Amino acid sequence: MPDVTISIWTAAVGFFLGFLAYFFKKWCPSLYVHILTAILGIGWIVYVFLDQGFIKTVPIFFIFGFSFFSSPVPERSKTQLKEIIDQLKEQGAREIVLSKNKERLLADLLFSGFFIVIAVLYFLFGPNSAITFILLYSFISLFVGLTKRVGLLRSLRLFYAEHEEALYAVSLFETKKYPLKELSEVSVQTRPDVLQLFQLFSLFSPNMDYTTSMGKTWKLSFSGEKVYLTPDPLESMDFLLKGEIHKMEEFEVKPFYHPKNWKRLLGKWYFAATVKGVGAYAALLTLFTLLGIGPIATTAVIILFWIFNLWISDRVLKIALDMRKIDDPDLLPIIEKVFSRAGLSHVDIYVTESAEYNGFAIGANIGRSLVALTSETLKLPHEAIEGILAHEAIHVKKRDVLIGQLLRFALIGLVFAGVFLIHEAFPNWLEHNQIFVFLGLWLLIFLLPAFQSLFTQWMEVRADHLGATLLDGGNAQMANSLTILCEYQDRALEKSVGYHIDFKNEQEANKKDKKISSLERDSWFFRFLEFQFMPHPPMYWRVHALQTTETEWSIRKIKLWWCSRFRESLPN
């Protein structure tokens, strides 16, 4: 592994060159700027190569690339931002004054600071291991997120264009247009729910957090996106209550430090440190290093801690994702029918708020399992929801969550064990044949996700076809459920992409005529990536396999998937 100090300096150099390129573009042609930053970046990589050697330079290269391309530089200058604002005003758009204060930013700084401190302590006192790079990635992501929050707080402007019936959110980082015809729900919170909005406290894609104060917060649910705003209390927002949106619900949100939020806060912090990141493991490693505990004992404790986290994963995720039991009287009979047919009488079904269409199973075994659906998924036709529940019921019945975690752990363990044994057996050969070691590392980088995909796709195909046996409509109903889910997902993604606008030529220049469809067979390269590296087979194939086979699970279907996995990955 490369030196930690070199790794951190590499991230700093990447950020610096990213900012340098942004500022130079104001005075120099873009081509010259790219050439200059490329020369400086290559110079740094060469310096590291001479100091650290060939193998250690490989992760350094990735650190540099990630840091450079994720530098939180604005998409436009202040002059360009002013031109956009002037253009909106000329078109008659009314500016909505936002409530702004530093308290909102301080909340993000507090949450981020907790994980940044863990990373810094590990960099200073922890062992030099692969976990360093995961922490460095998290550190960079948090830094980028905080920088954008500061830029958003300072530059965000909100406009309502009455003639278009659209809401514009304009900042140095992006410009979005939200047509009010896509608005499905409006609610008001007494303050921003920062435990829901902070980036590490969410399992799904983050909400559009335009909150700039700790005051009254408007939550707008658009197709494919949820938007949070904090307009000035004196601003009128009645223009949102039109058409079908004739009523506005109000909710009280307690401060995150309120005693009623302590359990929720602890659960989300634990989720961020153990599920979304490795902060808890890094803290343990740092503590054991400072105490002088040996590697064998440390490894044993880390494995036991991982098993413990897997055992309580259902409770942690239930708190972290703010789940609540489904109590819809129209859905309860469907849930009872599907899970009784699967022989699962003690599995709870929950809903978690998200703008995505998704369902998933959680838990180490049947006795500690639950199934969760997103709030958007509950808007699907009941026939489609029944198919999704049947698919997840099979995941629970076959203990796929537990098996998937064990397989992932075993694969990673085998890789590390193999590397260690080779290093111990052939130290001299490795030192004098670094090019072969380099090629071997690249082979492992590709093989590990490919092996994971092999197992997880088999589980998904099995869940599709065994789940179909729980449905009255069999394969046809499961295929229709996946088709409906896919169509809704594609439509939401299309809407979300369409909210981004470009003022350089015309306000909606970046909207594409081509529709997004996951049900269409893509080019061979993208089929190859999906079949060989993704956890799910392509949706077009899953639907086709259900439509063209009988309702059962058999060796023949395993062969069909196995053959398709390779045949569909070839150019044809």
Task: Based on the model shown, name its key terms.
alpha+beta; 4-stranded antiparallel β-sheet; single chain; 572 residues; 20 helices
Mean pLDDT: 86
**Sequence stretches where pLDDT stays below 50 over 5 or more residues:** 506-513
**Tally of helical runs:** 20
The largest pleated sheet is described as: 5 strands, mixed
Number of β-strand runs: 13
Percent of residues in helices comes to: 55-70%
Protein structure class: alpha+beta
The N- and C-terminal alpha carbons lie at a distance of 42 Å
**Which geometry do the CA atoms define?**
globular
Strand line-up across the major sheet? 6-8-7-5-9
Tell me the fraction of residues in β-strands, as a range: 5-15%
What is Rg?
26 Å
Cofactor: Zn(2+)
Pfam family, one: Peptidase_M48
GO molecular function: metal ion binding; metalloendopeptidase activity
Subcellular location: Cell membrane
Give a quick precis of the structure.
This protein has a domain at 393-501 and 517-571. Helices cover 57% and strands 10% of the residues. It has helices spanning 4-24, 30-52, 54-69, 78-90, 103-125, 131-155, 194-197, 262-274, 279-291, 295-311, 313-320, 332-341, 382-397, 400-425, 427-432, 434-468, 474-498, 524-533, 539-547, 555-567, and strands at residues 94-96, 157-161, 166-170, 175-179, 183-189, 208-210, 217-222, 225-229, 249-251, 324-325, 348-352, 359-362, 370-374.
